[in-house]
Structures are given as structure tokens and as C-alpha cells.
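Reading a protein record of the kind used here takes only a little practice. The record below shows the convention in full:
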Amino acid sequence: MRKKHATHRVAVVITPNAPLFEIAVPCEIFGAPRPDLIDPPYVVTLCATVPGERVAGGFTPDATALGALTEADTVVVPACADVDDEVDEDLVRELKAAAERGARVVGLCSGAFALAAAGLLDERRATTHWMYADRLARRFPLVKVDAAVLYAAEGNIFTSAGTAAAIDLCLELVRRDHGAAVVNELARRLVIAPHRGADQAQFVVAPLPTETDSSLGPILDWARENLHRPLRLADLAARAHVSQRTLIRRFQREHGLQPSHWLREQRLRRAQSLLESTQLSIEEVATQSGFGTPASMRHNFARFLHTSPTAYRNSFAK
């Protein structure tokens, strides 16, 4: 059973003419009430650099001034209208203060430019929409720009690639707050694909398939149902009736990562869910998630989640 969480306050920063979709993403994921899933709910406040200013699409949000950021546990800066515009000085000051007091500071898409202007990305790995990555690197040379990933996280600073990747990052934040089981159910209710890992490519050049049965979807569903087995690349290739080299190429084309990386990510998610929602022993969790041994599971938790299975379970204990 997961522990009772304190109310978490999320401030969403709105800049003039900001894209509506990027504003809507954190509002939907954090702001929509789901009392049977997330209790207490997140409390979302809209904060505008220019209160009363319209955003793209002609909407004028009911937003307060930036001073409200001082009460936020998470500050989210969605995309801006033009990455070449100077970042509001008051916003820069408030972002610095939020980071210094330990709040999570999140830049969605081109919102990363605001975080960079505040110096929060100096010497950190960060990402943005692939179309703006070169400009971010040139304008802020201290930022370690990685244009290949969906989102990046270092300490309490988070950045995402464009549009749909903002959903992935927001879901990752919910996972950190409430666990894998909650975020999987949230994704199901939103009718979106299961939460994608940070290292999945944000831009994959994928031509339309020439065969109607060429999608990896059925193979991935089968693999998820059989994670308890010691699945290998050869097993996935045999199930797909293709060579291992062909399977690797298709994985790269459709997902931008290696099959082994995808399997590891699925095993970690399964283990997290079991640790959160069951009283299975560490040995049983390792077996059912396909790691085989507790030592292997502990190694993967330490390397990729920066914790141990026991510590992870304890964080969700009453």
C-alpha cells in the first residue's frame, strides 16, 4: 500500500501567446480530479508573466501573478511563443528562487529556454524540441543539450522534448510522487500509450510500413505478458518470425532504442508495481519481473532508479 501523500502544489507558468496544448498538458495531468486514484489531489495554480494576456487560440486564462510561485512544490514552464524572445526578468528571478528552495522546476518543450536563462541548466543535461536544440546550445553554451531523448532529469530540474513528450515527463513526475501502478492507470484513463522512458528517441524517421502486420505492437504485448520468463532477443525475434538483426532494425525504426533496453525498462516497471502493491518477497518480485535474482534486480534499481528495491518499497509503505 502506498503511503498517504501531502498536498502537492503545482504552479503552471503562462507566457504571452504560449501554445495552448503545452499549457493544457500539466493542467490535465495534475489538475483533473481523480480522488479514487490520487488523494489528496494536486493543487494547480496558473501564474502568468502578464496576467490577463491571451495565449494561442485566443484564450485568456484566469491566472494570477508570478508571486504565487513561492508556494509551489513544482513549477512548470510550458512552451513559449518564440524561443528568440528574451525571458521575463521576474520569471528568471522566481525560477532561481524556486530551485534554491528545493522545488521541482520543469521546462516543457521550449520552456527549457526559461530555465536556461535562469542558469538552472548550467552544466546539466537537458533537452528541448529537436527543432530548437541547436539554438538552445548556441545561446546557452553551458547547457549539455541532448536532442535525442524524450526528457531529461538532474536533481530537481526537468526538461522535455516537444508536445507529446511533455505528457511523458508529467507522467514521470506523477510516477515519482505516487508510483508506477498509479501512473499506469492514469495513462490508461487518458487513453495513451504506457509511460515511455526518458531515453526513448524523440524523433524517429519511420517510413510508413509496407506490410499491415509489420508493427511491433503484438510482440511487445506478448513480451509484457511473459516478463517473468528469461526473455532474450532470440525469443522476441522468433515470436515476430524475423531475424534478430531485422528485429533490432525495427525496434530502432519504431522506438529509437535497442530491444534489450526496452525489456529492461519493462522489467523495472513491473518490479516497481509489485513492490508498491503487493507483499511479495524481494526474491518473488525479482522472479516475476524477470530479473531472475535479487542481486540482478538490486543492480538495475541502483543503476537506473538510484535506489534499492527495499528502499523503493518503504517509500510507499503506510
Confidence is low (pLDDT under 50) at residues 203-213. The first strand starts at residue 9 and ends at 14.
